[in-house]
């Protein structure tokens, strides 16, 4: 159940009175009850949010009375977490996408915290001119158990993620979600079967690091291969479960789906054999979970063309504060 909004600084208990008197700048500020934002309206709210984050000033935003805010899979008071530590919101990589039907908007970018730059993602829900939900992720590499084994990535622009598809080429919302969900089915207990479709030129980027067609990642030998080839080998059999799957933003115009969820690893698998006979050793030998925000781009043929993922380590089987029935 939604809980009443709480702010970090008690000195600003009168903030809602102030917000009621002074409308927020930029985005639509007088949206009739029950009416959703269009794309530009949602982008306006997102831009306001990022500007306020850059200035460490969450209190100037039009929060709903029962707004909910999470960072790295934990519910926080508005104004806590990265709001305290951000030095600058990055401007070199800014990926926006929107779902007017659900009243949600998503973002992938970077944040600087005292000289340390981290991948950053969020999705936001807007209702009746108020921000009702914000889920954020800051993937701080220094907190990761396997960070030393994987080269540091860098968030870069990918034009394909910003392409607007002609109406005749667009897939339905249901088909887009099914393709993303099929990706997770393919990854879960990966044994070589494909439960989704991949474009021949499919690429995947994880925490800014390209993990397809990249022979520089020694800890992941199959990174030299493409999306489908990796899965056909059954390399990710140590991924036991893809749970808590949610799809809070579906941008039909661009063929994008934002997914949230967890990858659970029991750590039980030591050595295993790929479908081509190659012997492998699992990189994960202890109970472990990843929390992820993952963006999929589908082409007009109904194939996954590009994947942009930000994920981080959390306690094994950690639950989500965003229940499946609590997303749009």
Question: How would you describe the overall organization of this protein?
Answer:
The protein folds into two domains: 10-138, Nuclear Transport Factor 2, Chain: A, CATH 3.10.450.50; 148-320, Nuclear Transport Factor 2, Chain: A (Roll). The longest helix has 16 residues, at 39-54. The protein is 15% helix and 33% strand. The chain is built from five helices and 15 strands. A hairpin with a 5-residue loop joins β12 and β13 (279-281). It has helices at residues 15-21, 39-54, 82-85, 173-187, 227-232, and strands at residues 63-71, 74-75, 88-89, 95-99, 104-113, 116-127, 130-138, 198-206, 209-210, 241-251, 256-265, 271-273, 279-281, 288-298, 304-314. The protein is an alpha+beta fold and 328 residues long. The strands form three sheets. Strands 1, 2, 3, 4, 5, 6 and 7 form a seven-stranded mixed beta sheet that branches.
């Amino acid at each position: 159940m939604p809980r009443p909004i709480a702010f970090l600084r008690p000195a600003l208990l009168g903030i809602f009175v102030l917000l009621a008197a002074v409308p927020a700048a930029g985005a639509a500020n007088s949206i009739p009850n029950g009416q959703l934002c269009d794309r530009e309206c949602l982008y306006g709210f997102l831009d306001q949010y990022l500007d306020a984050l850059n200035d460490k000033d969450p209190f100037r935003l039009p929060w709903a009375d029962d707004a909910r805010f999470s960072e790295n899979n934990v519910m926080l008071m508005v104004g806590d977490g990265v709001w305290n530590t951000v030095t600058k919101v990055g401007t070199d990589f800014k990926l926006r996408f929107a779902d007017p039907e659900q009243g949600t908007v998503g973002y992938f970018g970077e944040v600087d915290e005292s000289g340390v730059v981290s991948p950053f993602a969020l999705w936001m829900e807007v209702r009746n001119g108020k921000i009702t939900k914000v889920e954020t992720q800051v993937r701080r590499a220094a907190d990761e158990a396997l960070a030393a084994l994987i080269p540091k990535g860098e968030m870069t622009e990918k034009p394909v993620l910003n392409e607007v598809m002609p109406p005749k080429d667009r897939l339905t919302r249901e088909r887009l979600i099914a393709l993303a969900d099929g990706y997770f089915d393919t990854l879960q207990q990966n044994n070589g079967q494909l439960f989704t479709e991949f474009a021949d030129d499919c690429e995947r980027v994880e925490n800014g690091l390209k993990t397809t067609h990249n022979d520089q990642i020694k800890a992941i030998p199959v990174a030299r291969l493409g999306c489908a080839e990796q899965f056909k080998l059954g390399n990710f059999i140590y991924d036991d479960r893809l749970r808590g799957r949610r799809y809070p933003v579906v941008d039909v115009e661009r063929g994008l789906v934002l997914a949230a969820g967890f990858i659970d690893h029991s750590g039980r698998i030591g050595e295993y054999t790929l479908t081509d006979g190659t012997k492998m050793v699992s990189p994960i030998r202890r109970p472990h979970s990843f929390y992820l925000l993952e963006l999929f781009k589908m082409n007009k043929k109904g194939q996954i063309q590009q994947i942009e993922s930000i994920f981080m380590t959390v306690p094994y089987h950690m639950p989500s504060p965003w229940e499946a029935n609590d997303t749009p």
